[in-house]
Amino acid sequence: MNILDKIIFDKQREVVLKKSIIPVSQLENSVFFGRETISLSQKLRTSSTGIIAEHKRRSPSKSVINHSFTVEEVVKGYENAGACGISVLTDGKYFGGSLDDLLLARASVNIPLLRKEFIVDEYQILEAKAFGADLILLIAAVLTREEIKSLSEFAKKLGLEVLLEVHNQEELEKSIMPTLDMIGVNNRNLKTFEVSLDFSKQLASQIPDDFVKVSESGISSIEAISELRPYGYSGFLIGENFMKTDNAGKAATEFINNLKA
């Protein structure tokens, strides 16, 4: 069983437990459930930088990245830096995140928030909406085409956008459907954790222009973005590069300013 299989196994058990504790009606009555969401895809289409900055405390591959910031400090720093959107990891066991991180982020900024999570059930999409997310992530590697279809349709009914993450052509081919807004290519192999921008380059021409193209993971330099732009990418998800510094907001500001220069 690889790390991804373990995460999904644990996630399915976690969802069953949460469903038994917090009823759907409680999620639907939350303060944020009725709010109008902000479109990340529209922002990326018109942005000159396309940066989606990530709040991430740790990961299975890197262990602890940073525990010294508060969520509010990080996300306000990202918003002030000019990020198009913010990705908030909410998985607890493997990434040290929580839905409270999403809630605090929503209370602190007014730009699109992605709930970065291993979604396997509609219940998690209701949680995303209830805790202030504007979009969700679906990972093609762990979902069937039917699951991607039903989960993305459910998200759209709630007014949430959908970022679909793929790693190879097989995942991309099974996933393309009109209920997606953005297609992200993860440059990290989730089974080996090897990182290469070639993943994004190889798949770029296979992604229809109807979708905003996003490149995720392993982007740590202006040069990497310059390399990927000619392939049609307008979104770039950056996490560890900012989070591993002493001041994530300052690091993001410097990066985005250099990108504009």
What does this structure look like?
It catalyses: 1-(2-carboxyphenylamino)-1-deoxy-D-ribulose 5-phosphate + H(+) = (1S,2R)-1-C-(indol-3-yl)glycerol 3-phosphate + CO2 + H2O. This is Indole-3-glycerol phosphate synthase. InterPro entries: Aldolase_TIM (IPR013785), Indole-3-glycerol_P_synth (IPR045186), Indole-3-glycerol_P_synth_dom (IPR013798), RibuloseP-bd_barrel (IPR011060). With 261 residues, the protein is of the alpha/beta class. It has one domain (3-260): Aldolase class I (TIM Barrel). Helix content is 43%, strand content 17%. The protein contains 12 helices and 10 strands. It has helices at residues 3-21, 24-28, 40-46, 71-81, 99-108, 122-130, 145-157, 169-175, 198-203, 222-228, 240-243, 248-260, and strands spanning 51-55, 58-59, 63-64, 85-89, 113-116, 135-139, 161-166, 182-186, 212-216, 233-238. The protein has an 8-stranded parallel barrel with strand order 1-4-5-6-7-8-9-10, surrounded by 6 helices. Strands 2-3 form a two-stranded antiparallel sheet. Strand 2 and strand 3 form a beta hairpin. Helix 4 packs across helix 5 and helix 4 (71-81) runs parallel beside helix 12 (248-260). The N and C termini lie far apart (46 Å). The model has no long low-confidence stretch (mean pLDDT 94).
